[in-house]
Design a protein that fits this description.
Strand order of the largest sheet: 1-2
Structural class: alpha+beta
Order of helices and strands: HEE
Largest sheet: 2 strands, antiparallel
Distance between the termini: 27 Å
Radius of gyration: 12 Å
Number of domains: 1
Number of strands: 2
Shape: globular
C-alpha cells in the first residue's frame, strides 16, 4: 500500500507539472518531500544528479 501511495502522489504531481508546461518530456527534475507535500523543480541541463 505505501508503494502505491508514493507512486500515485509522484505520478499525479509530475503529470500536473507536465500539463501546465512547467516541465517537459526529457527534463531532469529534483523532487523533495516536506510538510507541504512534494516539491518538483526542474534541474538545469547538465546539472549534477545525485
Amino acid at each position: 500500500p505505501l508503494k502505491r501511495v508514493i507512486q500515485k502522489s509522484l505520478q499525479d504531481a509530475l503529470a500536473e507539472q507536465l500539463l501546465e508546461g512547467l516541465i517537459k518530456d526529457g527534463d531532469t527534475v529534483e523532487i523533495s518531500a516536506g510538510a507541504d507535500g512534494l516539491t518538483i523543480n526542474e534541474r538545469p541541463k547538465g546539472a549534477k544528479v545525485h
